[in-house]
Design a protein that fits this description.
With 159 residues, this protein is of the alpha+beta class. The protein has helices at 3-24, 132-142, and strands at residues 46-50, 56-61, 67-71, 74-80, 88-93, 101-108, 114-119, 153-157. It has one domain (3-157). It is globular and about 40 Å long. Residues 6-13 and 16-24 have low confidence and may be disordered.
């Protein structure tokens, strides 16, 4: 896989996490991976708007591995949690006392201006899963299941 394509996939992951937050809320007690699986992707940083123009997302770099995300004014932290050649992000709601996580798969267009996020279906992956290792096994087991993801969200980078 070439560097440009890898970069696009990483960028999409962050956006996917954000979309998951917007579409399904935070549901899980643990992240997919306990630590980031890669560094912050520069092409994900910036301001994004949903296709229907109702949702706004700002993605900023907290440090080398972690993003701070403002989604319609709510704050989240997120990082890459790649698993079985799939680009995921673990996103934590830092604006609530529960600090729950959401999981998203993501894709970034070749030009870096369009982000697709696909949130995990919480009906398929139980919210009661209490550790990252069990979560990883469940996700890997269901990667080929068309019901793994909820409806995708599309965002466009604002200039």
């Amino acid at each position: 896989m070439n560097a440009a394509r890898l970069t696009r996939r990483y960028t999409f992951g962050i956006i996917a996490v954000l979309a998951c937050l917007a579409l399904s809320g935070c549901e899980y007690d643990v992240p997919i991976t306990s630590k980031p699986t890669r560094k912050v992707e520069g092409r994900l940083l910036g301001d994004w708007i949903s296709k229907d123009r109702k949702d706004k997302m700002k993605v900023r770099k907290l440090d080398d591995d972690v993003y701070i995300i403002s989604y319609n004014g709510d704050l989240f932290r997120g990082y890459h949690s790649d698993l079985a050649k799939t680009s995921f992000v673990s996103v934590q709601d830092i604006d609530s006392a529960e600090r729950k996580y959401s999981y998203l798969a993501w894709e970034l267009s070749a030009d870096g201006n369009r982000l697709i996020l696909r949130p995990i279906n919480t009906d398929l992956i139980p919210k009661e899963t209490k550790d990252s290792a069990s979560m990883q096994k469940l996700l890997e087991k269901n990667l080929q299941n068309p019901k793994l993801f909820n409806e995708e969200a599309e965002f466009t980078k604002e200039k």
